[in-house]
Amino acid sequence: MLTQTTKPKAPVMTDLKGQTLVCLRTLQEKNPASLETYIKLGGYSALKRIVSEKVKATDVITEVKRSSLRGRGGAGFPTGLKWSFMPRYFDGVKYLVCNTDEGEPGTFKDRDIIRYNPHQLIEGMAIAAYTLGAKVGYNYIHGEIWQDYDTFEAALGEAKAAGYLGENLFGTNFSFNLYAVHGYGAYICGEETALIESIEGKKGQPRFKPPFPASYGVFGKPTNVNNTESYASIPWIMQHGGQAFADLGVENSGGTKLFSVSGHVEKPGNYEIKMGTPFIALLDLAGGVWKGRKLKAVIPGGPSTAVLPASVIEAASMDYDSLSKARSSLGAGSMIVMDETTCMVNALHRLSYFFYEESCGQCTPCREGTGWVYRVLDRIVKGQGKMEDLDLLTDVSKNISGRTICAFGEAAATPVLSFIKHFRSEFEYYIEHGKSMVGCKAEPQ
Amino acid sequence: MLSSEAIQKIDYELTKYPADQRQAAVMSALRIVQTERGWLSKESISEVAQYLAMPEIAAMEVATFYNMYDLAPVGKYKITVCTNISCMLRDSDEIVDYLKAKLGVGFNEITADGKFCLKEGECMGACGGAPLLIVNNHTMHEFLTPEKVDAILDDLQ
Known about the structure:
The complex is a heterodimer of chains A (445) and B (157).
Chain A: H1 35-40, H2 45-52, H3 57-66, H4 79-84, E1 95-100, H5 109-116, H6 118-132, E2 136-141, H7 146-161, E3 177-182, H8 192-199, E4 223-227, H9 228-240, H10 242-248, E5 256-263, E6 269-274, E7 277-278, H11 279-285, E8 295-299, E9 308-309, H12 310-313, E10 317-318, H13 320-325, E11 334-339, H14 344-358, H15 364-381, H16 389-400, H17 408-433
Chain B: H1 4-14, H2 26-37, H3 42-51, H4 56-65, E1 77-82, H5 85-89, H6 92-103, E2 109-110, E3 116-121, E4 133-135, E5 139-141, H7 146-155
Parallel strand pairs in B: 1-3
Antiparallel strand pairs in B: 1-4, 2-3, 4-5
């Protein structure tokens, strides 16, 4: 190992009341990231049992299906079903990939898994590798969280030394080598095929699908890609049973979920709670809206999910069905809270710059459309907007959506459409008066 | 010429990939060389490409695509401040104004003594600690206040 262990610097959240810890279960302990802590909590026992008892791959997949675990990266695709797409009888090398490339504003949950409970992710990936017949795995980590990359790589060394990674594990013929690799500043690499391109040492431009990674992934080989939190849920599921995991949540949304709460709350941070928890309970865990102010709006799952006004989100609960009924979605569980002083025009302007900056440039509607949207919003915040700009923004966004290789197009269009839908009068006021309705001081650069 | 330390580190990265996939290590190799030299010149990029037996243009594509690679000098300390929505809601604009005034530079400018360069960054995936900044790509500082910014800058000598 060339890298050194870096101890997490940020304070470990100690107030765990009201949470249900699965992926962050080590947080209750003194040295959450250590192998010793993880083993004390029953860690690696599921892997050991599955590998030594040669549990059938189909039985593991059945258990994962029973858990009703859905992809935690944002798409919500059933994990067990995804695993069943991997070719079972394939002679060559198969790969396992973990997506720890969080770069969508408001998303920072996987970071806490790799810095506070890295071994649970490693065990989850090893179980997946055994099940899917992969001998090599990569965890692709967001380049900006470098200290946490070091923590994870150190944990890999520990796991290997203890015999949980490497050749012939537990005296069987099962071998699994897992490596940490990194991004270096490109949001698009959170898209699984762009991530695969990046692992191969290329610019991260998404691939046209099909073929899907299950048949043509890393280096052209069958590859299973899951989110960090999805893999990290596996050891608990295999330890306690799929049904027990499903029972933690509600129908169609099994288990617990990590919610990254940022913006205008007293205690921003990650909260692991049961699926189906009312929004107001989560807001309460995060200390409520800061400075005693009123709630104005919430982006429940990251900017690629629709913003919701306070009255709508306050009636919702944090699960797939409830948020979809509210015309938004759970996404990656990245909740951005905005209080009454927030200027929605400025907020959208900032988001539109992000999508313009991060578009990979491959598809014309996205490359040109995101820039167009940004320039129109830019003239609005500079007091040069025209009333017809609102229809123009809607029109351009609708024409990006659905016309691109990857989901970035929809992600870029969603904030524009939902901000204008719910806060149209605020945009109209800004255009008419050349300034913000809420007296927001910000004249963005 | 790549230094022996850089080669040693790149060789470690190469152990992660099949022997016939040397290009896969380009992300780390560019990072390693940039960390050593401060930024990536065309010569640095072509040295990396040669070592990994890949076309220079392919290494250049990677270096220009990912925004943490610097293709021009960035002073001794590059300070990248996130200004995206979660940071903005926690007053990152005030931190930016404070840094600009204190250093006397705008975004993408280097101080006269060559010590600091200020950059605007996109989401760094740590929004719970907003507002935040990163020094030379690898050291993050969270929960910023003007006082904390003073302390961070004082430590960078």
